[in-house]
Design brief:
The chain is α+β, with helices and mostly antiparallel strands. It contains 15 helices and 19 strands. Helix 6 runs parallel beside helix 7 and helix 8 runs antiparallel to helix 10. The longest helix has 19 residues. The radius of gyration is 25 Å and the shape is globular.
């Protein structure tokens, strides 16, 4: 009979072998991810679309992520710089990051501070049209103090110096790969944009634009036992309902994103028992963008939907009375009940969270008032014509209203059309495939950035919990046009000097109380003037298979932010 000591030793060896086997990279086979909005690129700097940010986060990484609670966590660095640890200068005019020394790119070359410096120069290039430029607001330069220390300098004191390279919107890209892709050449670097070399858990094997990304585990990833999956597929296309079904009913996919599906339909699918629906509220707001420029096709590409220093105003949406009436006519609770259920809340703010930044000055919109909307239009001289459509000086209130193809969005469109008809506004509905609508192709006439319609609807949000960079998106200099390859984030084309001044002031203000005041004032300019018409504060809704463990739903960063930890 074996001794107790021998048996214990044998059990210990067995446990070690089992543990080693469990810890093997790629041990769980294949991971299937479905984003019904297909990625058009793996470079988020060239597209403001969430789908590009999410897809690329599997491969390229920022210096730090936001976790599911909105806290910053180190990724490529040793720690988060603060004033206390010496990483943030006492005058708030610089931040210094110390890179980990054990991180290499997927091609085996070391990550260095020079890559971070280059990433900043890439986005800051005046001819580049970087969609993440607001995250580098007030950056005057980046310098590599040594191979593993990078210093970011600001032209003003930055109370919140974490805009650049924190969160998946501003990842670090490899200098060696993108060196010849600066400025106007950025869009031409198809190989780099489709197949970026990264430090993340996966690497691209094949990229098919607006279709599918095939990936495999990065054998040089910094944690030897991660990712748990040897290969992964990031599939795009279809619609939200079929995406939900593929996880919750058929089990074909492991994870499905952005399930903008009628709540009762989603509940029925979940009852099949194959997967779970997960929700997190962050800053996502479904909103109407109100075009402040003339989008008449007869103007041609040299004028259509271009700001032209204010010389090309919209023929009727430049009238504040019309914009306010459109908002008052909408019953937001009906929209929530029909399309979102517990995953939506009516809102009058483009900045609904964190709570300290949420304004109550615009709550008029929570109570629909078509009678008041009609009175406002009458008073402004917009009178019903023979067909019931209001007109003034030969201009009809006839709106082309576009959004991406999705059953909930088309349902919302149909309801709003009815509500606007009740106040004498004619509405034509248009929907565009999401991969095209949210794509970054500057030649396409159908992107939300081109805005070749009167009204368009979509959801947007920001990484992290500080809104400075997000609110800076709507300053005058951020208006899209050919000079920035249509990548400016001021989609509605507003230009309000007072707003720009508030944005500049916020960039130099340290007090949280004062920052909250400034953010609310900026929100109130956008919403109070109805340059945007917020509709629904959306919870992020996704689903994962019951067999997929480690998912930590995150509304403050990419939902795939911790995919390295996912396992069976």
């Amino acid at each position: 009979m074996k001794s107790i000591t021998t048996l214990i030793a044998a059990l210990a060896v067995t446990a070690m072998v089992s543990s080693a086997a469990h810890a093997q990279r790629g041990r769980d086979g294949h991971l299937n991810i479905l984003y019904w909005q297909a990625a058009s690129s793996m470079n988020p700097y060239l597209s403001g679309g969430t789908k590009e940010i999410e897809a690329s986060s599997l491969v390229i990484e920022p210096l730090a992520h936001y976790d599911e609670n909105g806290n910053m966590v180190p990724v490529l660095v040793e720690e988060i710089p603060t004033i206390e640890n010496g990483g943030v200068a006492s005058d708030l005019r610089s931040i210094t990051w110390k890179l980990r020394k054990d991180i290499v790119w997927s091609d085996g070359s070391p990550l260095t501070a020079h890559d971070v410096v280059f990433s900043g120069e890439y986005c800051l290039h005046p001819e580049g049209g970087c969609t993440s430029l607001s995250y580098l607001s007030d950056v005057t330069g980046l310098e590599a103090l040594d191979d593993h220390t990078v210093k970011i300098n600001f032209g003003v004191a930055k109370p919140f110096p974490y805009g650049a390279f924190v969160g998946s919107t501003t990842p670090v890209i490899q200098k060696a790969q993108f060196a010849d892709c600066l400025g106007l050449k950025a869009q031409e670097c198809t190989e780099a944009n489709f197949n970026p070399i990264g430090t993340g858990p996966f690497k691209v094997d094949e990229f098919r634009a607006n279709d599918v990304v095939t990936l495999s585990a990065n054998e040089n990833f910094r944690e030897a036992d991660k990712p748990a999956f040897a290969t992964a597929t990031f599939k795009g296309g279809g619609d939200a309902a079929s995406a939900a079904r593929s996880v919750l009913e058929t089990g074909e996919f492991d994870y499905a994103w952005n399930l903008q599906v009628e709540p009762e339909v989603l509940a029925q699918m979940e009852a099949a028992g194959k997967g779970a629906v997960v929700t997190a509220f962050g800053t996502s707001v479904e909103r109407l963008m109100v075009n402040q420029t003339n989008n008449d096709p007869a103007l041609g590409p040299d004028q259509r939907s271009l700001y032209l220093d204010g010389a090309n105003p919209h023929p009727f949406l430049s009238d504040p009375a019309v914009r306010r009436a459109l908002s008052l006519a909408i019953d937001r609770q009906i929209l929530v009940d029909a399309g979102y259920g517990a995953a939506g809340k009516p809102t009058c703010n483009v900045l609904p969270a964190p709570a300290v930044y949420a304004s109550m000055a615009n709550d008029e919109c929570l109570t629909p008032n078509p009678d008041e909307a009609n009175r406002i239009l009458d008073e402004a001289g917009w009178m019903p014509g023979g067909d019931g459509v209001r007109e003034k000086d030969g201009v009809r209130l006839s709106i082309l209203y576009q959004t991406s193809t999705n059953s909930v969005r088309q349902g919302t469109q149909a309801l709003i059309k009815q509500m606007w008809e009740a106040i004498g506004v004619e509405t034509e509905l248009r929907n565009i495939d999401a991969a095209v609508f949210f794509g970054g192709d500057p030649a396409s006439p159908d992107t939300y950035m081109k805005f070749y319609s009167d009204i368009e609807m979509y959801t947007n949000n920001f990484s992290g919990t500080d809104p400075e960079s997000y609110m800076a998106n709507w300053t005058c200099e951020k208006i899209p046009g050919p000079e920035n390859q249509w990548l400016g984030p001021n989609i509605q084309r507003q230009c309000v000097p007072e707003y720009d001044a508030l944005s500049a002031e916020m960039s130099q203000t340290a007090s949280l109380e004062e920052r909250a005041r400034l953010a609310k004032e900026m929100n109130n300019i956008i919403v109070g003037n109805h340059y945007m018409i917020p509709l629904i504060w959306r919870g992020s809704v996704s689903a994962h298979a019951n067999t997929l463990l480690g998912v930590r739903m995150n509304a403050w960063d990419s939902e795939l932010w911790n995919v390295a930890d996912w396992h069976r």
